[in-house]
Specification:
The chain has 100 residues and is mainly β. Strand 1 and strand 2 form a beta hairpin. It is globular, with a radius of gyration of 18 Å.
Length: 100
């Protein structure tokens, strides 16, 4: 299968996964991954992209984290076609106060 590039006319190979879901996750789901050890250790929250290999890429506010296993991920919200982002819960001093 290939796509034709509209502007230049050359073909771009595409690879589609046979299943829409992998390990109970779907591309676009909001996930929280808690990775205990290794190079990618830490907590990552963001949108998941499922790779053909079965591992996940997580797009966070700080960039992409690649190659995360499904066993470290938990779903925060299923993909519903809308784009969401999370605000930080740290408020700056004086925010929300009005000067009289």
């Amino acid at each position: 299968m290939s796509l034709i590039h509209a502007l230049h006319g050359w073909q771009v190979p595409t690879y589609l996964m046979r299943e829409k879901r992998a390990k109970g996750f779907q591309t676009g789901d909001m996930v929280k991954a808690i990775v205990p050890t290794g190079k990618k250790a830490g907590t990552h929250v963001g949108r998941v992209a499922i790779r053909k290999s079965g591992s996940f890429n997580i797009q966070t506010a700080h960039g992409a984290v690649q190659g995360i296993s499904h066993k470290y991920c938990s779903i925060l919200q299923r993909d519903d076609g809308y784009r969401y982002h999370q605000k930080s819960s740290i408020h700056q001093q004086g925010e929300g106060k009005r000067a009289a």
